[in-house]
Amino acid sequence: MVQLTTAPAGTVPERAVEVLADRRIVVLTGAGVSTDSGIPDYRGPDSPPRTPMTYQQFVGDPVFRQRYWARNHVGWRRMDAARPNPGHRMLARLERGGVVSGLITQNVDLLHTKAGHRAVIDLHGSYAQVRCLSCQGLISRMTLAERLEDANPGFAELVTATGIEVAPDADAVVADTAGFRMVDCDGCGGMLKPDIVYFGENVPKDRVGEAFSMIDAADAVLVAGSSLTVMSGLRFVRRAAKSGKPIVIVNRGRTRGDELATVRVDAGCSPTLAALADALVPETVRG
Predict the structure, then answer these.
(1) Which of the 8 DSSP states describes residue 202?
(2) Strand, helix or coil at 196?
(3) 224 near 29, Cβ under 8 Å?
(4) Taking the model in full, what pTM does it have?
(5) Which residues are tagged catalytic?
(6) For residue 172, which phi and psi values (nearest 5 degrees)?
(7) CB 281 within 8 A of CB 94
């Protein structure tokens, strides 16, 4: 039976510590772990309604694609400037302490890597690379930014001067995108797309297989900041539950995996993960 706990800020339920202690833990994170870095989530209790672009819209409609690139041309800079918060740093500390054996993130913000976490699977890719859908060539997002700036001089500066909101996929809220000029692959002329798994698109099979192997090798699973609404994350929790591994979920609000949890903590990620790190990491490897 799931034990549901609402933890006071800066604490972690004793039962959660008992479940995770002396076990190799794999962590699955979602957008809720990055909100304290200024990146809003999609489905948190205080989040406004959001409709992310689908893969079919991106590849099938040039107007949708133009709108996306105009907004992303502004938004990716904000995501690139974001810095790890205490939640990211505490998970990296748990890895250094030998408690966390691997981390699977649904986020594309690279904040776990920036925090020093090493064994990370970026399940949905990252904002920092762009792929050509024809030749499969990869370029950095910075390289594309320079090309887009040449094609649209001053666009990003003009928009950011009025203040913007950025979604978890680096999509900025920009009203007027009609005059924005897109660019194609400079190698083959093919369509460029962020190297991010869109809604309606499948996570690469080898990446899924690597994540399943990480789950299989673990003794327990910790979910942090994910509502588990989409199957790309929920399947790993189901895999762990099927094999009898204990599962602790830390999230503000309900999740789709609640019935599978051993303990569910209704709380923010940063203070709860900090308390968990204090409880699980030996004094000699803290920092």
Answers:
(1) P
(2) strand
(3) yes
(4) 0.90
(5) 124
(6) -90, 155
(7) yes
Predicted confidence (pLDDT) per residue in 124-179, tens digit:
999 999 999 999 999 999 999 999 999 999 887 766 544 555 555 555 556 567 88
Contact 119/43 with Cβ under 8 angstroms?
Answer: no
The 8-class DSSP code of residue 166 comes to B
Q: How many CA atoms are closer than 13 Å to the CA of 18, on its beta-carbon side?
A: 6
Instruction: Give the pLDDT confidence of 86-96 residue by residue, as tens digits.
Output: 999 999 999 99
Per-residue burial over 182-200, b if 16 or more Cβ lie within 10 Å, else e, is beebeeeebbbbbbbbbee
Which amino acid, 28? Answer: L
Hey, what domains does the chain have and what are their CATH numbers?
Answer: 1-39+84-124+202-287 (3.40.50.1220), 47-81+127-196 (3.30.1600)
**C-alpha–C-alpha distance, residues 69 and 60, integer Å:** 14
State the Cα–Cα distance between residues 281 and 21, nearest whole angstrom: 9
**Angle 205-217/231-242 helices, nearest 10 degrees?**
30
Closest to 72 measured CA to CA, from 127, 151, 132: 127
The whole-angstrom separation of Cα 106 and Cα 37 is 16
Q: Which residues contact 15 (CB under 8 A, 6 or more apart)?
A: 3, 5, 263
Alpha carbons 231 and 256: distance in angstroms, whole number: 10
Q: How far apart are CA 225 and CA 95, in angstroms?
A: 18
* Alpha-carbon torsion angle 171, 172, 174, 179, nearest 10: -50
Which tokens in the block code for residue 280? 């699980």
- Name the nearest CA neighbour of 72 among 146, 166, 149, 195: 166
CA distances from residue 34 to 10, 270, 286 in whole angstroms, order as listed: 17, 9, 22
